Amino acid sequence: MTNPEQRPQHDRGYYGAGWQQQPQQPPQYGSAPFAPPRPPRRAGDPTRAFAPGASAAAVVGAAIAVIGLVAIQAVSGLVGMIGTSVSVSPFASYGGQTVLLSFATAVFVSPFPFYAGAFLALAFLTPVTRRSPLPVVLLRAVLAGAAGTVVLALVGVFTGAYAAVDAGPGRLVVDVVTTPLQRGVPLTAMLLATATVTWLWLGRPRAGTGRRAAGLPGSVRPADAVPPATVASLAPQQQQPGQPQPGQPQQPGQPQPGQPRSSFAPPPQQYGQPQQPPSNPWGPPPGR
Questions:
Q1: Rounded distance between C-alpha atoms, residue 179 and residue 159, angstroms
Q2: First to last CA, the chain
Q3: Which among 78, 155, 173 has a CA at the least distance from the CA of 114?
Q4: pLDDT computed for residue 91 by the predictor
Q5: 90 and which of 20, 67, 99, 143 could share a cystine (Cβ 3.0–4.6 Å)?
Q6: Considering only CA atoms, which of 253, 257, 258 is closest in space to residue 243?
Q7: Do residues 164 and 27 make contact, with C-beta atoms less than 8 angstroms apart?
Q8: pLDDT averaged per 10 residues, the chain (length 288)
Q9: What span, in angstroms and rounded, lies between the C-alpha atoms of 248 and 242?
Q10: Closest among 150, 131, 148 to 65, alpha carbons compared
Q11: Close Cβ partners of 12 (under 8 Å, ≥ 6 residues apart)
């Protein structure tokens, strides 16, 4: 019989002596080597000012903040238009524009670059999320307002360059520096208010959620709430077979715990078996 150690390498089986498993090579797909799967992309840090990324929650928060800003501008302009219409006709032309056209220009057309820049910044760069603390949300709103002001300045480069042909280079300075700051500062202040309202709206407790996440608006436990027990209750002690439980009456004929059973006492009744009467109550006890 051949010694397993003297067999050739190709003659050794899977469980043969001295068998060495060959390392498996990764599968080749064409000429490119096998690449491991990429790890999932981590979500943005909620405590940082910049959290680039795209998500549905960030787009919703940006839309709510910007729409709230437009609503504030519309209400303010509407009140001013009503006040002007008391003395002059809203449809009459004054300086080439009517009161209605001036309202639409001041509320929607002129600050539209600010709206677009702030929305893009809040949606993809500085999002308003419910996981972020309020100071971070306010800082992100300021950065979004700065982005909107920069967009106003970029638009002012083209409008100022076109107007500087007739009005001189001073018009370029006004459209690039003065006008963007004049419009961007109050719009940024109003964006702070709308971003705060958006943060509170996104962090409100949802209907149907039994457990609220800690650290979110509306998740503070009431003062009179009873905290849960921190010490587990002790397990009930196991009863010995044949030992009566506390408060249970002693069965007749059953010995006390620690007392020897008398030979004349009848055996304890088994659970589920009816007790049979003795055939001869006056005779000797039954043998064991």
A1: 11
A2: 66
A3: 155
A4: 79
A5: 99
A6: 257
A7: no
A8: 53 50 56 57 71 90 96 94 85 79 92 96 93 93 97 94 88 93 96 96 67 50 55 53 54 54 53 63 66
A9: 12
A10: 148
A11: 4, 18, 19
pLDDT of residue 210: 47
Residue bearing tokens 């000012």: 49
State whether residue 89 is helix, strand or coil.
coil
**Strand pairing of 93-94 and 97-98?**
antiparallel
Q: Produce one character per residue of 145-183: b if its CB has 16 or more CB atoms within 10 Å, e if not.
A: bbbbbbbbbebbeeebeebbeeeeeebbebbbeebbeeb
CA separation (Å) from 113 to 6, 71, 104?
85, 16, 15
CB 215 within 8 A of CB 130: no
pTM value surpassing 0.70: no
Q: Please report, for residues 53, 74, 228, 284, the alpha-carbon distance to residue 280 in angstroms, rounded to integers and kept in the order given.
A: 94, 108, 63, 8
Reference 110, options 142, 143, 152; nearest CA is 152
> What does the DSSP assignment read for 226-259?
PPPP-SPPPPPPPPPTTPPPTTPPPPTTPPPTTS
- Helices (DSSP H) in the chain: which residue ranges? 56-87, 99-104, 112-124, 134-167, 170-173, 179-202
